[in-house]
Specification:
Blueprint lengths: L19 H18 L13 E6 L5 H12 L3 E6 L11 H9 L5 E6 L4 H6 L5 E7 L5 H15 L6 E5 L6 H12 L3 E5 L15 E3 L2 H7 L2 E4 L15 H8 L3 H5 L6 E3 L12 H4 L6 H21 L2
């Protein structure tokens, strides 16, 4: 699979650092890789001589499996590192950990870390390509790319399309990356949730705010619904999950009462019965499983394009 174009950057640290041209190139490459992963033989030799380390300092299911599958579909050699069973528990620093791994001749690093800015820090100190798989509450660029790619499949060009992001915006790295990505593609973005879960600065980013879920759904073409991130909350932001579900949850009766069909998305994991009910998550409105499939193709595209820049 050949392309004469390259990304404008050696790393994927955040959507903030990508251009609109980078994003379109990733999508075009992902289109071709989606054809590959739906063939009987799903493997290509594109990264046969590349070694990739997946370094996860936080728990992950979908992102980690998606990256590992993407790497193996490209024939890369894969090393998996989990902080919970490593020398990190003995006090080893992030830089020492990564340098030890790189001394084993690793070419690329996919990293998730609880500290915002950790991938940027690494990119200034090591030669390997870095892909940010989520850094604290900062960014999660490949999730935003696969979300926008999935919207593009449903709606075509996203210029002028209306996208609502519902839920726990203040703690969500997915929300921030989605906002950056959708704006670069020309979409209009509205966030919706309790006032306590909407960042005070958000309107300065060119994003509108709505606290009524029905009004947000009536406005949008796509609703990207985020979970309540209780593990990141050190304060009580609303009275109870039951009350959140009552006022901000999306259910089938609410969707059926709209005078149009909208696309429902969720980056996972889903808290069924809280931000979204099962009859919505599993309905004809939902493209949640398509997002998972597209995640592999988009991550294959990112890995392939970064390897081409080496």
């Amino acid at each position: 699979m050949a392309t004469i174009q390259q990304l404008s950057t050696r790393h994927v640290l955040g959507i903030k650092y990508l251009t609109a041209e980078d994003i379109h190139l990733i999508f075009e490459t992902a289109d071709r890789f989606k054809e590959v992963i739906n063939r009987p033989i799903k493997k290509v030799p594109s990264l046969r001589d590349i070694t990739i380390a997946n370094i996860f300092y936080e728990n992950s299911t979908r992102t980690r499996i998606s990256f590992e599958l993407a790497e193996k579909r490209l024939s890369a050699d894969v090393v998996n590192f989990s902080a919970s069973s490593s020398s990190v528990k003995k006090g080893e620093t992030l830089l020492d950990t990564v340098n030890n791994i790189l001394s084993m001749k690793v070419d690329m690093v996919v990293m998730r870390h609880p500290a915002p800015g950790a991938p940027q820090f690494l990119s200034r100190h090591i030669k390997a390509n870095i892909i940010n798989a989520g850094d604290g509450t900062h960014e999660h660029p490949t999730q935003a790319l696969l979300d926008a790619f999935s919207m593009r499949e449903q709606l075509g060009d996203l210029q002028g399309k209306k996208i609502a992001i519902l839920g726990d915006i203040v703690h969500s790295r997915v929300a921030l990356s989605n906002i950056f990505c959708l704006q670069k593609l020309g979409a209009q973005v509205k966030v919706c949730g309790p006032p306590t879960l909407i960042p005070k600065y958000i309107e300065k980013m060119g994003v509108s705010v709505e606290h009524n879920v029905r009004k947000a759904l009536e406005w949008c073409d796509v609703a990207n619904i985020l979970r309540i991130q209780l593990e990141r909350q050190d304060l009580k932001y609303f009275p109870s999950l039951r009350e959140y579900a009552l006022y901000y949850g999306v259910n089938k009766a609410l969707l059926n009462s709209l005078d149009k069909r909208i696309v429902i998305m969720h980056p996972g994991p889903i808290n069924r019965g809280v931000e979204i009910t099962s009859d919505v998550a599993d309905s004809e409105h939902s493209i949640i499983l398509q997002q998972v499939e597209n995640g592999v193709a988009v991550r294959m595209a990112v890995l392939y394009l970064l390897a081409a820049s080496r």
